[in-house]
Fold this protein.
Amino acid sequence: MTDTTTTLAKLTPRTEPAHDDDVTIEPDPPETPPKERSIPAGTIVRRGLQVFALAVVAFMIFALWLSGLAHARSQTGLQRKFRTELANNAAPVGGAIPTGSPVATLTIHQIGLTQTVVEGSRASQLRAGPGHVTGTPLPGQPGNAVIAGRRTLYGGPFHHLASLRPGDPIHVTTGEGTSTYRVTHIATLAAHDGTFVQEQGDNRLTLFTTDSPWNANGRLVVTATLTGNPYPPTNTQHALDPDGLGLTGERSAAPYLLVWLELLAVTALTSAYATTRWSPPRVWLVFAPILTVMIWLSFESFVRLLPATL
């Protein structure tokens, strides 16, 4: 058995370790530069449409709901101020009345409306409530007192104005007392028709808003005649405001809108950068309130560019 094992060992070839000189080292393949990630044009368009749709939805929420809350808050303050002025016989009845000041309380029970009327009927004044058209007599005084109101935005106080019928009473309280008017006529006028602000030789109250809840191609005008005698006239010391007739916005709001949009963009970029340094909860805690304020102010400036009675 030993001889057989020895014989097999002699016949088995020995494997010598390979020398370094005999080893062939394959060179590493050349590195391929990483390909730049390109975003398809379709993705960019889709994301752009998503951002636009989100902005439209956010504006609709602001216009149809949040602006109404702001309007209600403004009315609460105006009502409190006007009641105090009436109690102290300090409500304005003439002279140079500052725009935005409360001048009357308008009540129409048929459409559930009770609003404090401010002086001035531009877009910025109609955010707070219906506005007395500067240059026309105050309600209750001789002549044609004209009041404008929004139909959709900021609570839409004149949204149901078209529901009035001839004979419906309208009550207006000013610093001189309470006057009652009765509806005589409801009409839709073209945008170029300015007869509704002209004197007609009687004592009337004219209420107007846009002819449609969604655009401002014309005016819905309600005319009411004073019952009883008017209060003594006062000099309002103002000419008729051509920019306060309800179908135009405030061009002066454009620079403000541009500034708020720029600040909004800077804040958004800063928050995006912060996500690379901070945790998401911290980013939301710091930037969410700032972005909310910027968006709100941008929307308010944009609304000022829209027709005032929309």
About this structure: The first strand starts at residue 102 and ends at 108. The longest helix spans residues 41-87. The domain at 59-87+101-244 is CATH 2.40.260.10 (Sortase; Chain: A;). Strands lie at 102-108, 113-119, 131-132, 144-148, 169-174, 177-190, 204-210, 218-227.
